[in-house]
Write a structure and sequence with these properties.
This protein is globular. A nine-stranded antiparallel β-sheet has the order 6-5-9-10-11-12-13-14-15. The protein has a four-stranded antiparallel β-sheet with strand order 3-4-8-7. Strands 1-2 form a two-stranded antiparallel sheet. Strand 13 (238-250) and strand 14 (253-265) form a beta hairpin. Helices cover 10% and strands 45% of the residues. By secondary structure, the chain is mostly beta strands. The chain has one domain (4-294). The N and C termini lie far apart (36 Å). The chain has helices at residues 44-50, 66-71, 141-144, 171-179, 291-294, and strands at 4-10, 25-31, 88-97, 103-113, 121-130, 134-137, 146-154, 158-167, 182-190, 193-203, 208-214, 218-223, 238-250, 253-265, 283-287. Bound molecules: calcium ion (CA) (2 copies). One calcium ion is lined by residues 36-38, 40, 42, 44, 47, 54.
Amino acid sequence: MTALAVWSRTEASSLAGPFGLEGAVLEATKLTPLQDSDGDLLPDMLEHVVQSVGDSKDSDGDGRDDFIEQLEYSDPMLKDASNLQNDGFRILLHTTSLPNNEETLWIHLMFRMRSGLWQDLQALSLFLESGGDQRFPLDALLTSSVAEIRDRMDPVEGLLVRVSLKVPTPASLRGYTAVTPITIGGFAKIYGKIFMAGSMLLHNNVEYLTLAPVGSKALVAQTTNSQSTASPFWSTQKRCKVSLAVIGAGRHGLWCEVSKADCEPSHKAARCTPACPSLVGGTFIVPDGLPFVIGG
Ligand SMILES: [Ca+2]
Ligand SMILES: [Ca+2]
């Protein structure tokens, strides 16, 4: 696997100024796309996307691991009550770029089998949806594109699993995202119950963005590429908070419009994309309704 050089910020001082530069030490480190420094099953580059801390298993110190917080659609940087569920399924995305500007899409499938048994995962199906009326099966990726499987047995939470798929140079994705955001979605049947999940991917002519739910109400627009020079993550302590207005319902989902998008102050690990304000007015369809991307 090719090592990718990125800049990471060391939190050398709690005295950092409002823009996080004072007291920060920049140092070059080597990261591979699936490196998981804190061992919580979330790769460092994915922690950048979901805005948790890459060297802490429990970023907010509330006793629930970052991986669990993602499965429960809770904010990994906010101490909040557990949204305790039994089994669970979630899809998250990140991207990496090659020197020739080709992009690689990483699709992370995350599961919790409370019983601790792999065989409780009874069925799995993936799709790509574009524009709300075109849905293409992606099940072939499950046999052709698995790059890594990691699991961890937790005495309380059960069996936690991440399956990461590598989709090289999705040139066709660029075509889709030029027109409309796409959704990578899926269904998992775990111990007889169907779980659905999805992540949206859009391209604003500069970089890929995804809408990551943080908590049950807030969505954050975040670059999927932690190496992106378009949004240097050491320059800000803000995050791009997005509000959606439902403007219609169709056969395939809900029509939503971005009614508000602001860089708001946040915790030390957050980074607001410069593209934030330009998201207002964008419309897209959330397949199968909002629970698909913001949790049940
Ligand atoms: Ca991690
Ligand atoms: Ca936590």
